[in-house]
Amino acid sequence: MVALMSAVGASAVLSNLVKFLSKFKVINNRESEPPSGRNRLVECFFGAACIAPEPRLAACREVLAKIGSLLVHLDDVYDVYGTLDELRAFTDAIGRWDNAFAAGAAALPESMKAMYAAIWTTSTGAADRVMKDQGYDVLSLYKKAWHELCKAFLVEVEWKYQSYRPRCDEYLDNGWITSTGPLLLLHAFPTLNLNLNEAQQQVNACLGNQNNGGDGSIKYPRLVELSSTIFRLCNDCATHKADSEQGDDEPSSIACYMREIGTSEEDARGVVQNTIVENWKELNNEACTGGWNLSSPYGMANICINLARIFHIYHNGDSITSPTDSNKPLVKDLIFIPIVICDTEPQHEGCNGDV
After folding, report:
1. Distance (Å, rounded) from C-alpha 346 to C-alpha 324?
2. Cα(25)–Cα(226) distance, integer angstroms
3. Residue 350: strand, helix, or coil
């Protein structure tokens, strides 16, 4: 995986992504506050490169890095910057997908207007590219997915305001959506360079139309739900301790199990780890028996599996919230350190070669 991209190529991509993110520099920043939104573009590109490492998946890496960067900012909007009334208005604006409404009638603060504009511009651009390259329209699914994510974020905010303690199953039913895995995968799937018939077939069969959930929600494949659940549980394991020490009352699977079972944090972590293992068993079974094409590294199944794999780096801490932790060398080694490739058989003393 590591050897598939050159440091020069990765740096060029990151330069383009920095330009992209700079267009929305006011995201998360109140007029009266210094800039404080988290910029995790490099970390997001690292994740994208691990989810879609093959050279031909450059478009997939690009959209994953862009959407991932926006999701870090969106998480801050719901966790830190927005009041409950503002977040309800913002969620409504995302559901309307109307630029004029978001700019005026929604009465949003400037930071949220910028966030809305970034989401609208990025996903509309991604949908236009799919239409151009693949010949079918995915914008309606993108719009629905953003709204579902924002509604799920809002549920967690309302729990906090109401001092409500969700049950474990209730938390995870909402939490696999707020993991952001479904939205990331939805943007990734159409960029996998499948042939037109196969791509159209898989998108239609797996994602259907925007009413296929019965209640108007997207009905994601079970593979997406399982990989996103693993993502959520790994993230909870990484962030619970730091959040608790900071007095943050955000819900997590560990906190839910501690309350529901009446056990210690250590025992609750054990339960969560067992839950991760069981989800992996089901994920592997679904990938092998659910009619997915595992022979191709460019298929949907492998992208889902890679997403679940990469977020196991969280066992050493949350590298998005705390990028100076032990995961930082992984990012540096993968993206910025050239890999020496020998033209001849390697010698015992090493070899001299160029990247």
Report:
1. 34
2. 34
3. strand
pLDDT at 76 over 60: yes
Amino acid at 15: S
Mean pLDDT, rounded, for 217-222: 88
Tokens at residue 151, please? 């509604």
How crowded is residue 117: how many other Cβ atoms within 10 Å of its Cβ? 17
Alpha-carbon span 108 to 93, nearest angstrom: 9
CA distance 322 to 12: 25
- Start-to-end CA span in the chain (Å): 15
DSSP state of 339: -
Higher-pLDDT residue of 182 and 290 is: 182
DSSP string of 294-306? -S-TTSHHHHHHH
Residue 233's pLDDT is 95
Task: Look up residue 347 and give its DSSP letter.
Answer: B
Q: What is the average pLDDT value for the chain, to the nearest integer? A: 80
Q: Which residue has the higher pLDDT, 326 or 49?
A: 49
Q: Give 152-167 as a 3 state SS string.
A: HHHHHHHHHHCCCCCC
Distance CA 167, CA 173 (A): 10
DSSP single-letter state for residue 4: G
Give the pair of three-digit tokens for residue 109.
């603060």
Positive or negative CA dihedral for 36, 307, 149, 120?
Answer: positive
Short-list 47, 313, 89, 297, CA closest to 184: 47
SS3 for 38-82 is CCCHHHHHHHHHHHCCCHHHHHHHHHHHHHHHHHHHHHHHHHHHC
Other beta carbons less than 10 A from residue 257's beta carbon = 22
The predicted-structure confidence for 232-252, as pLDDT tens digits, reads as follows 999 998 887 777 766 666 789
Whether pLDDT at 322 is above 60: no
Torsion angle, CA of 308/309/311/316, rounded to 10 degrees? Answer: 140
Residue 217 falls in which region: left (phi positive, over 0), alpha (psi -120 to 50) or beta: beta
Task: Report the pLDDT averaged over residues 168-180.
Answer: 96
